[in-house]
Amino acid sequence: MPTNVLELSVLLWLGAFGAGIVGALTGLGGGVVIVPMLTLLFRVDMRYAIGMALVSVIATSSGAAAAYVREGYSNVRVGMFLEVATTSGALAGAFLAGLIPTSMLAVVFGLFLLYSAYVTMRARQDTGQLLPPDPIATRLGMNSTYPTPQGREPYHPQRVSLTWGLMAVAGLLSGLLGIGSGALKVLALDRVMRLPFKVSTTTSNFMIGVTAAASAGIYLHRGYIDPGLAMRVMLGVLAGAVVGSRLLAAAKAGALMVLLAVVIVALAVEMVVHGLAGWI
Amino acid sequence: MPGRPWTDEQVERLLGRVLQVGVVLAAVVLVGGVVFLLGHAMQAYDYHVFRGESVDLRTLEGIVQGASGLDGRDVIQLGVVLLLATPIARVALSAFAFARQRDVTYVVVTSLVLLLLLASLLAG
What we know:
The complex is a heterodimer.
Chain A: H1 5-26, H2 31-41, H3 46-71, H4 76-97, H5 102-121, H6 135-139, E1 144-148, E2 151-155, H7 160-177, H8 182-192, H9 197-222, H10 227-247, H11 253-277
Antiparallel strand pairs in A: 1-2
Helix pairs in contact in A: 1-2, 1-3, 1-10, 2-3, 2-11, 3-9, 3-10, 4-7, 4-9, 5-11, 7-8, 8-9
Chain B: H1 8-38, H2 60-68, H3 72-100, H4 104-122
Helix pairs in contact in B: 1-3, 2-3, 3-4
């Protein structure tokens, strides 16, 4: 455990840098790494940790976006339409968070991490088949194309209403826990809406930033965002997100997902145990 | 296409540029704050107990006021707030872009998201 200011700064920066890389590579945001790292490793109060998770999710989202935008993957219409659900849910969740004890929050967060790992392990393989257009998605102008080695291929988003409902739940979780809930977003976009995988992760990357921003104001007013922690976390996450977004093309997705799932399971178990024991 | 001066690709590229500028600006302001802070004694390491931030670090007015007085912690907090504002800037610009595309449905959708975001910033 770090004892002096310089040691703390260097360790926090390195951890945040790693969180930025992992968050950008997976489309999950930096929060999944930042919260356990701060609470378990640095013994930071859960509320300060949640404030930093918000900062790092937005840093990952905005920091990685430039690279993903250049590639032309993310679907602005799908993202924006679903953001109505996630921002509403996030507002409700942020108000509820003040009423729930932090140890219970840690348990909820741990269980959510386990679920994220499960989802990550079961990532669907792209069949590459073009599904028939969905009437609602067509009316909302969501049908689009994405780049492949063979040029831009069309795709048709499915089951808009169900996806919208799942996004409201994702928003509630993210307001409650101060995370972008990228795992739930990627799941809904990939499994329910049946978007191509890279469209799902990049659209999720856009959405987690907006969802987090919806609860950021509330956490700022509550005093959860500490400049002393922020100055050590924000720059590290930003640098990591830029590096991660550049690495994405070369990285083997399958191996990355397995590694991430293992890390997340380990952290999730610790969070639940510490939360139940009342150490946080 | 007539009446549609901006393509989706152009909009996305512009949005990406805005985000880049916002992120760099936020980082520069934050580093500035750290520089101002270096002249003073560094705060002791104790985040185990939650005390909440003082009023000047919790409200926009307080942060801007402190930052204009070159208080290191307030300048850092201003950098954080600038970063937190980048997704909001992205949504605001999207609303403008959809208006340029004469896409009424998405002007309404995007404005609704923007309203929810602003409601959260002003509430709390």
